[in-house]
Amino acid sequence: MAKKIRVLSLDGGGIRGIITAVVLKYIQEQLQRIDNPNAKIGDYFDLVAGSSTGGLLTAILLFPDNTKSAKFSVEAALDLYAKKGDSIFNVSFWEEIINPFGLFNEKISQRNLERQLKEVFGDLKLNELIKPCLITTYDINQRKSKFFCSHEAYTPLENFYVRDVCRATSAAPTYFEPAKIKSLYDQEFTLIDGGVYANNPAMCAYAEARKIPFSKVLHDTQKIDYPDINDMIIVSIGTGEVLKPYTFEKFENAGKIKWISPLIDILLSANAETVNYHLSKMYESLGPRNKRNYYRLMPQLRNASPEMDDTSKKNIYELIQAGLYFIDQNRKTLNEIAKKLVKYK
Predict the structure, then answer these.
(1) 38 pLDDT more than 90
(2) Active-site residue among 9, 51, 52, 109?
(3) Do residues 210 and 228 lie in contact, with contact meaning Cβ atoms separated by under 8 Å?
(4) What residues have CB less than 8 Å from 196, skipping those under 6 apart?
(5) 49 and 36 in contact (C-beta within 8 Å)?
């Protein structure tokens, strides 16, 4: 029997990636229950895509152990956010004085982020990740999207240190400076967060999967090469739905500065919603069985902050609670996903 291609897509959202990790942790626990007590999410997907915080999660989930299987469980990713999030997003008192609210410079120093990425990933290279991946960035010098794909990193020209890839996909405008990184061939790129065009990278993941000879890349003759939509299971996870309204009265005479923050919020949400619309309609056109193979998991933020850099203990607690509430309300769907991941392992 041919095995469907299992695709995982992870939205951007800064510290709100905690919600994604909580949802993935539950799915991983179901995999451990029904298939393997040592199951790790990275071993149950054939392609993982991520933007910004989702790109960072992608790299953690696909980090290799000595046997070329996934090294880290989802708990490790959750631990990274909960324990190191504050040092990554920390804004010192002095920086706050000279750069109030990020108006004159990027809001957060990249030094803490780069130090943590070096500590987590060391000298791991893109082509050493255990499965095909797609991590989004945008090249502000060449003015075009730049995708990092482990399955295409055959040569030093397309190969990079994973820590640099994560630095680039995390370079959200107004939060971090652009990332200036080099390939192993020494070609230089100036990159920002791919969330500016694909905060929900699920459609990018679908397009990428269409051109991959999975049986060869994964060394599994039962996997389908160059799959079409009938051959894919797509699980797309968001970092919390932002429902903050913007009234006409508040923006009737708003200038550029007043529009900056709302505009970023609106663009990120609109992108995610549009991708979901397209994929939903594509899957609705399929037969009764295959149309149920697209899952968009978007928890409500509930009491958590929509801010991507709120690393207060209270907000981290609320983000975890938002994820747990979603699990409680969607247990049947999440259990169904786990069963399908095992079926096409």
Answers:
(1) yes
(2) 52
(3) yes
(4) 138, 173, 267
(5) no
Please tell me the CATH code under which domain 5-344 is placed: 3.40.1090.10
- What does residue 43 show for φ and ψ, rounded to 5 degrees? -85, -5
Euclidean distance between CA atoms 189 and 141, whole angstroms: 8
Q: DSSP string covering 180-194, please?
A: EEE-TT--EEEEEET
Instruction: Say what the pLDDT of residue 99 is.
Output: 37
Q: Domain ranges in the chain?
A: 5-344
Residue length of the chain: 345
H or E segment and range at residue 214: helix 214-217
Q: What pLDDT is stored for residue 47 in this prediction?
A: 98
> What's the gap between Cα 68 and its chain centre?
22
Task: Please state the pTM of the whole predicted model.
Answer: 0.91
Is 193 among the residues known to form the active site?
yes
Q: Retrieve residue 149's tokens.
A: 């794909």
Question: Which residues face 306 on adjacent strands?
Answer: none
Residues 6+ apart with CB under 8 A from 290: 229, 230, 283
What are the Cα distances from residue 149, in Å, to 131, 154, 205, 268?
10, 10, 10, 23
pLDDT at 7 (0 to 100): 98
Q: Does 183 qualify as catalytic in the annotation?
A: no
Q: Given 43, 46, 164, 193, which residue is catalytic?
A: 193
Residue with tokens 């990018």: 204
Please report, to the nearest 10 degrees, the dihedral formed by the alpha carbons of residues 15, 117, 52, 92 taken in order: 50
- The pLDDT tens digits of the residues spanning 149-189 come to 999 999 999 999 999 999 999 887 767 788 999 999 999 99
Burial (CB < 10 A; 0-12, 13-18, 19+), residue 221, is exposed
Who contacts 31 (Cβ-Cβ below 8 Å, separation ≥6)?
A: 39, 41, 44, 338, 341, 342
